Every structure is written in structure tokens, then in C-alpha cells.
Amino acid sequence: MNVKYMYSLLAVIVLFLLAYLGVEAAGLRMLFGIVIPYVAVGVFLLGVIYRVMGWARSAVPFQIPSTCGQQKSLPWIKPNKIDNPFTPGAVVVRMFLEVCCFRSLFRNTRNAIKEGKLIFEWEIWLWVAALAFHYAFLTVIIRHMRLFTNPVPVCIQMVEKLDSFFRFEILTNTMQVGLPGFYLSGLILLAAVTFLLLRRMMIPQVRYISQAADYFPLFLIFGIAFTGILMRYFTKVDIVAAKELAMGLVSFHPAIPARAIGGVFYVHLFFVCTLLAYFPFSKLMHMGGIFLSPTRNLPGNSRAVRHVNPWNYPVEVHTYEEYEEEFREKMIEAGLPVEKE
Amino acid sequence: MSDFPKPDQLLSNIDRTPPRTDWMDTPVNIRKGMYCYAANPKSVEYTHLPFPHQWNPTDEDWHLPENWKEILHEGFKVRLERFRSFKIFMDICVRCGACADKCHFFIGTGDPKNMPVLRAELLRSVYRNDFTLAGKLLGRVAGARPMTMDVLKELWYYFFQCTECRRCSVFCPYGIDTAEITMMARELFNLIGLNIDWIATPVANCYRTGNHLGIQPHAFKDMLDFFVDDLEEITGIRVEPNFNKKGADILFITPSGDVFADPGTYTCMGYLLLFHYLKEVYGLDVTWSTYASEGGNFGSFTSHEMMKRLNSKMYAEAKRLGVKWILGGECGHMWRVINQYMGTMNGPADFLEDPVSPITGTLFENARSTKMVHISEFTADLIKHGKLNLDPSRNDNLILTFHDSCNPSRGMGMLDEPRYVIQNVANHFYEMPPNTIREQTFCCGSGSGLNAGEDMELRMAGGLPRANAVKYVHEKHGVNMLATICAIDRAALPTLMDYWVPGVGVTGVTEMVANALILPGEGERTTNLRGEPLPGMEDE
Asked: Which domain range does residue B473 map to?
């Protein structure tokens, strides 16, 4: 057993018990429904700002893009405008593809030495899973905005429609999937998280580099998706009460709804709060960091446009005069021109 | 070298199975053949770098200053403030593992600490301990560990097993660049005098004499004069290079390695012939400098400050001589420095003119601020305008492939210019597989100051992916010559080829240009610059 994922799994189980028992046994609905969500959002916002400001405070002394294609040089040589951007506009395109399409990850290959030969394979699954995970999560977040808006904006309704276009119904006494509409995003999120978790646990190299901090968010997000699906299709959360609570929170008139919403809902909410509060102090900040990564967000035009280093200080150099002073006689003898005969 | 493994042995030693113990509990084993010797204190002293002292990597005691942990902590802190890259790269890695098998040292050794992600984690663990809340509160659970002597040794060993090639940064979804992290780690080692000799001594030489090899001005001229004699024998023409000439059109700077050792010397002879041709036919006046007689910059493997101190000579000399602009020879990391650092560090070069080729009228717009042009850009432009009289059949004995050097590829993007030149001066050219060229090229295994003799096993292991791709085209197309535009490549690849792919030589691009170049008034050439018979002249 690997202690790193055991710690993380344990942490998530403890969180589950805290919220479930806190609400069901101790009745701490105010705490889990109002206080913690406000604290979590506060920590998230302030934390993210603090971290991004921290990065922004550090200087960018040199222009060091990783150039992943032909430079712009002679007019008849075709430059790779995206992977070796020359203008700020081209950098925006590169960044867009990086942030929205995970372009660098798309290049991923896998290799192995077989019979003395290094064999390459295109390795697409990490890219697929990462993309599926992030977009499914985004869709889920947008969908949840219906709980925080009244009336629900058309664009959110459209996302919901799209998300549930795939008709899929299982109707039995214990399980009623498909009524209400079945959301693909939830399933994809759960599947992608599972893939990413298994990948981390199964591939020896990836397991070797993984920290507890890698497993914890995955378990937590698994928990979020799982409790969400559980509420929607199985335990049937009281959606009207949930919305009442959410609207109270966003309008700053928080109140615990009179109708009980159920322990699973509070677990779900507590998981989300944990994720929000954890976010700024973790690797999840890659979301902000990618925008500031100097190997991606700078143009490859440092020979054409001078980049200025804010702390460029004078250094000790060995001048030509010092050089000639040492070697003058030898230079004259060899017929090399000198400044002072 | 007696216990040095044979190729098949080295190959079968590669085992990618990670150890049973966690990486934090797997102690470092500083193994012979895998590390470079400690710097001679005199070299460190000469350049006034911190804490010159005698030490040996395999000794228990590295004779560090008493407050070494404090020095490292402070040094770390300062660099986090000075380099956003460093701070971001310490913070945002998600350990997805996409970089893991992209490193030539990992492929060649199977050592998990050569996975770029884990190499960085070695340092990140200390960062978390010293600078993050989670690390301070949770310690090891948060992946943090305090700096200890064992940790320092591990860092030193593995950050001198990185050639700063940037291949991992191409695949990283956040662009995390191990080269950047390695540069910071080496700056930190430098603060407590833990330099390697193969870097520190060239740096001291370069500082004093203008070049890494410590060639003094008169000897530098002598060496080029030898080439002049050889060229006269081969072509019947005596070329007359200028040295330190005030008022010349262009200052030419190239790595001193090409003045010193085969096969780089042939590239150097190539420059001499090309410049002679341009002078005779077009009146272009090029000068060499003995003061700025080094294009390479081992200072960049020491610290940003040392990089700047050595690089300063280029502009200083161009200003003193009053040239219009600077032309740079074939070199890898030299061009990373010129392309991404020089203008910022030692510019603005407002005393130079816009780089215009007086022969073709082409303005090298991409170099209009730094005012330094690459010889391949310059030559490609000449060829495109039909300004060179070439006979590519003189290179018909060569079946070529091109090795993209790390820095011109991933720190510049110069991919098609040298290919254009090669295809105009030679007739048989084949590319290596796409995963191993252009921005995905593999390092020679000896870059960033690791091309010493004592770390040969490391170099041969690191060069395996490159050699393997050469072997592929060697077997498929009969490739017998590996062309490159890097002086470290020319120094390192012949050994690598002999080890993995015997029968493949190494050449600079300008050497082939000079072989194909028909000089006005030259006699019938029977040999190439290496003194080997030209195709069809074998019986002469």
C-alpha cells in the first residue's frame, strides 16, 4: 500500500464523515451551509490573488520562450507563427491553444527500447483524459450557475440542454437515471478522474513521482462528482431547497431553508468548499500559472526587440585594455595591431 | 576507462523499473563515469567567484563554508524574486509525467531521478520546506524535505546530469523548463564553490584570454595561419584573414573549439575560405578578434552574472573596432545566449548599424536590435540570391543527415536555414525520424559543460537517443556523415558515433559550403578540406 494515496483517501473520508455527521448527527447546518462556504470562497479569492500577485512581483529578466518551430528570419523561409511567435498577437494565439487545447500535451509521445532500438509511439490518452476532465468540470460549474441565478440566463440553459442531449433512461424502483435529464458532463468527469487516478497508481514511473498532493485533489473531485451524481439520480435531493440556500448565499441574505436538504448535499457542498480553500495553496494553481509561464507567454523576437531586465546590474568585466596590457609584447611580435605601441 | 561498459552492456543496463524505496529514501550514489571533477580552485579564484576551495565529489566532506545552508537559502530567495520563471516552475508542476521519458539521460540510464519532473522535484522539495506554508506545516506529507548534506549531494549529482537542452519544456503543458531550473541550481552551487572543472576552467580562460581554451593572441593567430597553409595546399590560394582590424565591415566570432580540434577545424577552414571568397568577389571585409575569440559561453553554465561578464566582450570589441555588425559562427549555447540574453544583458547595441548584407542588400530584420546574424542565416541568404559559385558534387561522397542542436532549435528556432544551406551544397541528404529532429531533437548528451573525459559513461548514455536515430538512417540510407551547427556537437558526437554507430563522421555545415565553393582562380581541387580525395579523384 502506498502511504501517499492512503493519506489522501483517508483525508477525503474524514472530510466526508465530518460533513455528514456534522449535519446529520450534530445538526451543524449553519456551519456547513453558510459559514464554511463563505470562508472557503473568501480564502479562494484572497488566496488566488495573493499567489498571482506573488508571481507578478517576481521579475521577468529575460525573454526565454521555448521555441517549438521555425523562427521568423529570412522573408522566403516560412516561420511557424504559433509555436515560435514573433508578435504579441501570435503569442495570444499560442497561449489560447495552450490553455484551451493543451497543445503541448497533445505532442506527447511514449518510447521504449526494444532490441536495441528506441521506438516511439504517439501517446494520446493523457491529453484526452486531461481535456475531458477540464471541460467536463467546466460544464458542471456552468450548469451549477442555475442554482445561483434567478431567472436562469439563457446561455446556462443552453449548456444544460447540450449537456443532456444524450437521452439515456433507466427507470426502476431503486434507480431513475434519465429523469430528470441525464448529464454527460458528470459521467465524463467521473470517468476522467478515475482514469487519471488509475494512471497515477498503475504506471510505475508516474506512481514514483506522485505526491499526496497529487492524489488528494483527485479523490476530492471524485467525491464531488460521486456525491453529485448520487444526489441527482439516486437520493433525489430537494433541488428547490438547494437553490434557496444558494440564492441566499449569493444575495448575502443567507438562511438555512426550512425544508431539509439531506446529509449528502452537505457533504457535496463541504467537498467543494474544501477544494476552493485548498486551491490557492496547491498545484491546482497551475490554472493561474500557465498564463504567466515565461517559456510560453513571451514572443521569440528577442533579437529584433530588446527585452529590458529590471535588475540588470553592472558586472566586473575583463576589458580590452587589461587584455592588451597583459599580452601586448606577444601581440606586437605576432604582428597583431595594438592600441598602445 | 577499463571498467567502462561496452555499448550492448550499457544498453542492457538500462532498467526503467523504479526502486522499491521512495525517492526521498533512496540515497544518491555518486558513481565514477557519471560525474565531472571538481573545479580547480585557481580557476574559481581568477574570476572572483565565491568560495574557491579544494574538494572532491566522492569525499564525505565537501569542505563547505560553515553557513552554507544559510547561503543557499538566501540565494534561493533572491532568485525566486529575480526570476518569475523559477518561482512559477517551483509552484505549478502537477506531476503529470508527460516529460518523464523525454529526457535523453532518462532514456539512456533509466534512473528515475533523470526524469525531468523528478529532477525538478529534488529542488522543489527544498523549496516547499523553506518557502511554502504547506511544506512548513506538513513537511514530508506535502513533499517537503530540509536541505541536508545528502540532499545537497543529490542535487549536485543530478543537476550536473542535465544538459539544459529544453526538450522536456516542449512537452510540458505549462512550459516548465528544466534548463531554467538547472541554471538556478548551478547558480546556487556556485555560491558555495561547488563548480566543476570542465566549466570553471574554460570560464577563467575565456575571461583572461578571450577564449575557453586559453589560447593567447599570438597563438590564436598562429593556429589560423596553420589553416591558411593547409588551405593553400588544397586550393592553391592563400587566404589572408584579418585580426583585430579596425574599420572592418563585420566582426566574426565563433567558438574557439573549432580552432583547436578536428573536425571543428575543418569548419574553421570553411569560414576562412568563405570570407576570402566574399572579399575577392564582393569586397566584404571581415575581421576576427583575438580578444573576443570565443563564441561559446561557459559562463552561462555557471550563472547569469558570469554569462554576462563573458558575453560583454562581443559588443565591447565590436565597438572598439568600429564594425557595422557582428556575424556569429556555428555554435549551440552561444546562440541561445546571443538570441535570448545578449541584447538584454549587454545591449542596446546602438553603436552598431542595422545588420544588412552588403552583398545581397538583405536586412536581417530578426536581428535588428541585437545586430548579430548567424552564419547559416547569412549563407542561406547568399545562396538564395545566387551569390556563391557552388559545385555540390564535390560533396557527393557524403550521405548526410542533420542533427539539430538543442539551443538553436528550442532557444531560437533555427531549423530551416541550415537545411537550406546543406541541400544547396550537397546532393545526398536524409532526415532522421520526426521525433528526433527539429524542436524535438535529442541532445548530443554532452552539452552545458558536461563534455569532459571523466563522465564518459554519462555522455554515452545521454547520447543514446541521438545515436539511435543516426543509426536508423545509417542502416536505411547509408548515411555516413552527421552535419551540425554546434561546436560542442563537433567535439562530442565523433566519440558518440564511434561508440554507437561506427562509420558515421561529423561535420560542420560551413565545411561543406567551403568544399563546394569554387574560388576565383583556384587550381583543380583533388581533396576536400580534410585532405581526403574528392569524389572521382580517388586515383589521383
From this structure: 203-516
pLDDT above 90 as % of chain B: 98
Q: Both B246 and B183 in a single domain?
A: no
B359 part of contact set with chain A, CB < 8 Å: no
| Closest to B177 measured CA to CA, from A292, A65, A101 | A65
* Count of domains observed in chain B: 2
Residues B363 and B506 in one domain: yes
Residues of chain A contacting B362 with CB distance shorter than 8 Å: 74
Does residue B179 sit in the same domain as residue B238? Answer: no
Instruction: Say yes or no: B140 contacts chain A, CB-CB below 8 A.
Output: no
**Residues B352, B464 within the same domain:** yes
B95 touches chain A (CB under 8 A): yes
Q: Kindly write down the DSSP assignment for every residue of A197-249, as one continuous string.
A: HHHHHHSHHHHHH--HHHHHHHHHHHHHHHHHHIIIIII---HHHHHHHHHHH
How many contacts does A have with B, using Cβ atoms within 8 A? 309
Q: Which residues of A touch B96 (CB under 8 A)?
A: 105, 126, 130
In the structure grid, which three cell numbers stand for residue A246, read together?
444558494
- The reply to whether B134 and B267 lie within a common domain is no
Which of the following CATH numbers is that of domain A11-333: 2.70.70.10, 1.20.950.20, 3.30.1330.30, 3.50.50.60? 1.20.950.20
Instruction: Report A:265-294 residues touching B (Cβ under 8 A).
Output: 281-283, 285-286, 289-290, 292-294
Q: Which residues of A touch B344 (CB under 8 A)?
A: 61-63, 302, 306-309, 312
Would you tell me which residues 73-92 of chain A have a C-beta closer than 8 angstroms to some C-beta of chain B? Answer: 73-74, 76-80, 83-84, 86
Q: Which residues of A are less than 8 Å from B351 in CB distance?
A: none
Is B470 an 8 Å CB contact of chain A? no
Same domain, B387 and B322: yes
* Same domain as B428, residue B307: yes
For the ranges A145-154, B185-194, B411-420, the lowest mean pLDDT is seen at: A145-154
Residue where a domain stops, chosen among B194, B211, B230 = B194
End-to-end alpha carbon distance in chain A = 79
pTM: 0.95
Look over chain A and give the mean of its residue pLDDT values, rounded to a whole number: 93
Domain ranges in chain A are: 11-333
